[in-house]
Amino acid sequence: MALAISLTVSLVVLTFLFHYTVLRWLSGGMSRFVISPSVRILVIVLVALSAHFIEIALYALAYALGDRILALGGFGGLGITDTLGYFYFSIVSYTSLGLGDVFPSGHLRFIAGVEALNGLLLIAWSGSFIYIAMGKLWPWQPCAEAAYPAADGHKGDSALRI
Prior knowledge:
- The protein is elongated, with a radius of gyration of 20 Å.
- By secondary structure, the protein is mainly alpha-helical.
- Helices cover about 65% and strands about 5% of the residues.
- The protein has a single domain (about 1-145), classed as Helix Hairpins, CATH 1.10.287.70.
- A two-stranded antiparallel sheet has the order 1-2.
């Protein structure tokens, strides 16, 4: 069980740091590129989605290691017959979809449960980031800006440069 806990904590820390780095780059580093606001929004959404796929792949790798090498458990139901099966199970867990056609056994259940919580937090983080980005980049009507001035009274001042 200690190995499963260590692996899970490592995955949570790694995915949070990776997600933080991606969102940090999207908020500051991407501002150096001269692109239209609508394209910038699309890039933000696609990069955030790509970050989630990478995080899902990290969990899928952990499932493969736990199943095939570390003997932390296995998979029941339809089972997993190939590498894509681990990725499929990881997507279902990360998004909290939980179809139940494939289910973990042994200590892999702990990893799957924590992945659902981790995925929920990271998806919410991306959603709130995209919401803020769209608030800054979406074409507003002039009356909307006058009705909702920035909290500090300055237009466009923020730590989020996007």
